[in-house]
């Protein structure tokens, strides 16, 4: 009996010690957990505060900017009034530019590619490229914008090759089919077929070019937007992101393409992406559209220009959140239209004056444009009355 009692006492003692140390361990774990929680919370608050310092308040977001006034003739002045999440473009009450064409009219095209500040700092080349060409003495032409993928080491080579090759192929097609003699544009399904065939042909030529130069094809990725402009309307096709829009004779601006965006931020596809394994996949990833009416202006651009010339989101008061919008900003483009037509009438060297102003605009037309990290390419066509384009 005494042995049994002693063994029982030992068991009780061991049990008490176990519980004591278990409680100590639990307390230590809780203290460590509390310290970690407080540390993470403080870091998160600091991060949120630092980010919030650079973001507009809710009142700033909902308050539209002042109605712009353009007193100087230099195009760069229009860039002072930025398009961003801080203001709703619709509230600016921009007067539409209504166009009543004369007996003779013609397209005047502005185009330029400007390197972004990020590429300058990293000593990288401009990865954008563009192409513009008029078909002989007709009012038909082709405009192409390519944006090299920032993560690809040879995307500038790809963008340059793709813009020129796409433009050349479209020009050859227009001349071969003599579309400029037609009184109507193609049907949507016809243009879709041509678009896939043209861009597929560009991809094959890029592949051959890469092999000849010893370049990795995947490192030459770029987006591509191509527009055929004519007196009858516009034809557009594209792979990837960027923007393109038009203004009708009534002065209404509309988008004519939807940028392709993936599930993650800044994600899109390139002409070198895996979209050529079947006709069905190619058709899915190549968007084409026809604007089957005469227009007075159009634009196409790389995404480095959209922050100051496009309305991409709008605050929805009822829903209490931003909604996606895809619309050219009249506050940016309408003064350009007016300036082009006014300068043409008043200055004998109007082409040079306008082209110089356009380059200045995309280089440093405003602090926001000058500080844009991404490359900026924009082509804009404006219909002008003219007996001659000289």
Query: What count of helical segments does DSSP give?
Result: 10
Radius of gyration: 29 Å
Identify the overall geometry. Answer: globular
Strand order of the largest sheet: 1-12-9-6-7
CATH H-level name of the largest domain... which superfamily? PPM-type phosphatase domain
Q: How confident is the prediction overall: mean pLDDT?
A: 83
Give the beta-strand count: 12
- Range of helix content: 40-55%
Order of helices and strands: HHEHEEHHEEEEHEEHEEHHHE
Report strand %. 15-25%
Based on secondary structure, the structural category is: alpha+beta
Whole-number total of structural domains: 2
Write up this protein:
The protein has 390 residues and is of the alpha+beta class. The chain has two domains: 1-55; 61-385, 4-Layer Sandwich (Phosphatase 2c, domain 1). Helices cover 40% and strands 22% of the residues. The protein is built from ten helices and twelve strands. It has helices spanning 2-52, 58-62, 117-121, 155-177, 188-213, 279-285, 306-309, 330-346, 350-364, 367-370; strands at 105-114, 128-134, 141-148, 222-229, 234-239, 243-248, 253-255, 287-291, 295-301, 310-316, 321-328, 376-385. The strands form three sheets. Strands 1-12-9-6-7 form a five-stranded antiparallel sheet, covered by helices on one side. The protein is globular. It starts with a helix and ends in a 5-residue tail after the last strand.
Can I get a quick summary?
The protein has ten helices and twelve strands.
Feature tags:
390 residues; 5-stranded antiparallel beta sheet; single chain; alpha+beta; 40% helix; 2 domains
């Amino acid at each position: 009996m005494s042995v049994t009692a002693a063994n029982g006492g030992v068991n009780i003692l061991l049990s008490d010690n176990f519980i004591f140390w278990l409680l100590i361990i639990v307390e230590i774990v809780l203290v460590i957990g509390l310290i970690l929680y407080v540390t993470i919370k403080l870091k998160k608050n600091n991060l949120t505060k630092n980010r919030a310092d650079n973001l507009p308040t809710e009142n700033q977001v909902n308050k539209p900017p002042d109605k712009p006034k353009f007193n100087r003739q230099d195009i760069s002045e229009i860039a002072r009034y930025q398009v961003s999440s801080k203001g709703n473009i619709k509230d600016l009450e921009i007067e539409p530019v209504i166009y009543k064409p004369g007996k003779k009219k013609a397209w005047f095209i502005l185009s330029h590619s400007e390197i972004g500040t990020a590429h300058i700092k990293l000593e990288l080349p401009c990865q954008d490229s563009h192409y513009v060409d008029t078909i002989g003495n007709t009012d038909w032409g082709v405009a192409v914008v390519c944006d090299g993928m920032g993560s690809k080491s040879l995307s500038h080579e790809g963008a340059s090759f793709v813009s020129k090759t796409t433009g050349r192929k479209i020009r050859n097609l227009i001349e071969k089919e003599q579309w400029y003699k037609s009184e109507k544009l193609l049907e949507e399904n016809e243009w879709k077929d041509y678009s896939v065939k043209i861009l597929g042909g560009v991809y094959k030529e890029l592949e051959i070019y890469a092999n000849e130069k010893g370049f990795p094809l995947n490192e030459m990725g770029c987006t591509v937007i191509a527009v055929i402009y004519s007196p009858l309307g516009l034809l557009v096709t594209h792979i990837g992101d960027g923007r393109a829009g038009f203004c009708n004779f009534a002065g209404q601006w509309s988008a004519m393409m939807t940028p392709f965006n993936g599930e993650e931020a800044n994600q899109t596809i390139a002409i070198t992406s895996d979209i050529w394994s079947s006709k069905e996949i190619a058709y899915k990833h190549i968007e084409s559209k026809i604007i089957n009416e005469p227009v007075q202006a159009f634009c196409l651009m790389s995404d480095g220009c959209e922050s100051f010339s496009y309305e991409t989101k709008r605050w929805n008061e009822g829903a209490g959140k931003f909604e996606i919008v895809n619309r050219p900003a009249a506050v940016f483009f309408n003064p350009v239209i007016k300036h082009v037509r006014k300068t043409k009438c008043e200055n004998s060297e109007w082409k040079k004056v306008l082209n110089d102003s356009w380059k200045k605009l995309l280089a440093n037309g405003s602090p926001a444009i000058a500080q844009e990290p991404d490359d900026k390419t924009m082509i804009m066509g404006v219909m002008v009355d003219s007996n001659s384009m000289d």
